[in-house]
């Protein structure tokens, strides 16, 4: 199914959709993937992503009580609906570990800033009912607590902005540029690929950008409506970083200790070298942002082209070494360093978009 114009998606909406999906699939054994996706107004890739989560859900945390749902890419099969329906009809009994985990998680979520008040109150009512039902088993949960890092508050604000279709103002730290910028963004969706990101239309760049939540230094929900242009949602199942064909080309050579670069970063080609290394050709929207990453491999990597990028990386290496020399000289009593500039070193490279995924580093 082809990509479709962006629509706001948030965690609560996705949860509601997946609950509806369970009922839908129970009544339609062997349903076609394309038909189900069309019925729910989502792409086939989004549907498959939901199907990857559903087998981790069930009537309890025990493996035998989970949904047995799979797909061959064309049809969807639910193998144990009758068994789960029978279990669901039985009175709910939580083991001590289940009650503890559920209550601790519920109390933690209820403290998230930015959570809609109606959702918070509904969660607190449900928590109180579970506490009453669990009895003594709930005692241990009162002695445990979870504190979310700052990303939790950012997540809640982004989720709320997506649900209410409102613009966000953020102060964002970019490691590639080592700077903090202020931006207004129209959030599109939350994405989890190792870290949690918000995909958004950046009003400063006038382009789609992806921001890592733990790099958001400050965030505010604005009164202005969010109005991202109609753009196709990308398939992020393979990688968050997806270089464009028009991005500048970078060629690097890595030794055996640097072969991980080809495994970790998207590239056009990776040719074997006689010493066991690789000659890797990749693309990046902003080659200059590689300077911060270029110190990572040391002698295991060398930039081949473009030559101006190689020169820039060498200067970064010299400056870093000079800074260390200055510290050592100061610790030795301020003795002057007369040994001259350090010899150029082979420098590594990694894809610039690793610090600013999609369309350019941010």
How are the strands ordered across the major sheet? 7-6-5-4-8
Q: What value does the Rg take, in angstroms? A: 26 Å
> Uncertain spans, ≥5 residues at pLDDT below 50?
1-8, 338-362
Give the structural class.
Answer: alpha+beta
Mean pLDDT: 74
By DSSP (H or I, 4+ residues per run), the number of helices equals 9
Query: Beta fraction of the residues?
Result: 15-25%
Distance from first to last alpha carbon: 30 Å
Strand and helix order: HEHHEEHHHHEEEEEEHEEEH
Task: Note the main attributes of this structure.
single chain, 362 residues, alpha+beta, 5-stranded antiparallel β-sheet, 4-stranded antiparallel β-sheet, disordered N terminus, disordered C terminus
Account of the 3D structure:
- It contains nine helices and twelve strands.
- With 362 residues, the chain is an alpha+beta fold.
- The strands form three sheets. A five-stranded antiparallel β-sheet has the order 7-6-5-4-8, covered by helices on one side.
- The longest helix has 25 residues.
- The radius of gyration is 26 Å and the shape is globular.
- It starts with 10 loop residues before the first helix and ends in a 31-residue tail after the last helix.
- The N terminus and C terminus are likely disordered.
